[in-house]
Amino acid sequence: MNKFTKFREEYPVFIYSSFDISEKPGFVDISYEFSIPGLADFHPGWSFPNPEGISVKNDPTFRRIAFSLGLAEAVSYWKSVCSPVFRIDCGAVIGKQSDWWKKLWFYGLGEFFYVNGISVSLDDLVEIRSCGDLLDDTPGARSVSGCLVPIGGGKDSALTLETLLNAGMNCRCYAINRRNSISETVNAAGLPPEALVTAQRRFDCSLVKLNEAGFLNGHTPFSSVVAFSAEAQAYLLGAEYIVLSNESSANESTVTGSQVNHQYSKSFEFEQDFHSYEQEYLRTGIYYFSFLRPLAELQIAAMFSKHKKYLPVFRSCNLGSKVSPDIWCGKCPKCLFINLILSPFLSREELVRIFGHDMLNDAEMLPTFRELVGMSEHKPFECVGSINEVRYSAAETIRQLKERNESIPLLLEDFTDLGLYQPESLPEQRELLLRSYNTENLLPERFAVILKNEMERIL
């Protein structure tokens, strides 16, 4: 009997017991209680900065947001045993709303299932059993204005922020738990420290003990947690727009020929689903969308590379983010991908300064490189761009180096040895990859105009 089947039999019910909203000077606090009867209780929570004079006491809209954020949080704890019944004692989701959550958990946990060798259908994954009352669905009545831009410290959110500010948009920045690269990005953008609003997420480390004891572990759709928490913060601040920085490359599956996508909760499908959920169930009047959705990673890299002030401060390394201050570890798939995607637009010297060493001459990165260029069963389980973009970046960098009579680094020599370097196709690929505009997006017209103008100016 595998672990998945064993744990589902031993722990048949996961309970979302309660959520509690309290107000403290300058903050709104949400605490949650989840439990796996006979195994563990979990008490995660959040603290959101709250402007003076704003109260959410007896506010049905904020209660709906807090309740939904709990559902997004719960999956991290539920996945340790994958109980076949998810019981809600503090509210209810029925019909299409229940189907919405089952879809998110099923596709958002695609990598988790793949890595753990779990085979289960969407219908059989979980029964959501609501034992509480439906929440009051009165729509929000607050006036809204301005943009809340979630900042992660990487190139994408820096480009979004820079472009909107240059267009004269009123922006505040949102972060989950302060990191050095986030505050430095806001500073590089020319904004004062108070423009950055940081929510504190309290993770229950009891889950880590379960993981160490051999219970199920793996990737969860964290960007859905970002979405619901940003909704809470935007509602408190009275923002009109939540402006994400997810791109079209996030739509590509991680495992070839499957729907397993490490970035599912950054995909356009999830963006559409969340947009619909907001309108139907949260009803705040806030508009959620991704500003960079029309673009691919290569276009973003080309545009970002023109804003040199961010090069010393941006960070996108998940391993390095666990170090203080943030660093590039220089050894993971994300670091190598960012290095490759920027290679056609930055000098070798600039890249070495960013990553600390010449990654393209690092023999240890050969297996990862081959995954990135599509020479394995799957791409790295990281937020990386499409295979075509990586191949173009490698080929264009080789072309430029040859044109300047410079030596070709080890990884790019391997690219040539694999028969992937085809310089004759570069002009066509350049036009296709750098001039495209994905019309599957939710950009309001004035934001689309800003983005198209910036593309025309830089690309």
Principal-axes shape call: globular
Largest sheet: 11 strands, mixed
> What is the strand content?
5-15%
Low-pLDDT ranges = none
What does this structure look like?
The chain has 459 residues and is an alpha/beta fold. The protein has two domains: 266 residues, no CATH class; 117 residues, no CATH class. It contains 18 helices and eleven strands. Helix 6 packs across helix 11. The longest helix is centred in the N-terminal third of the chain and has 19 residues. The N and C termini lie far apart (56 Å).
Draw up the topology in text:
Layout: H1 3-10, E1 13-24, E2 27-36, E3 40-42, E4 45-49, H2 60-78, E5 85-88, H3 96-108, H4 110-115, H5 122-125, E6 127-130, E7 147-150, H6 155-166, E8 171-176, H7 180-188, E9 196-202, H8 206-212, H9 222-237, E10 241-244, H10 268-282, E11 287-290, H11 297-304, H12 333-342, H13 348-355, H14 366-372, H15 387-403, H16 410-417, H17 426-434, H18 445-458
Parallel strand pairs: 1-5, 5-6, 7-8, 7-10, 8-9, 10-11
Antiparallel strand pairs: 1-2, 2-3, 2-4, 4-9
Helix pairs in contact: 2-9, 6-11, 12-15, 15-17
Task: Please name the defining characteristics of this protein.
459 residues, alpha/beta, eleven-stranded mixed β-sheet, 18 helices, 41% helix, globular
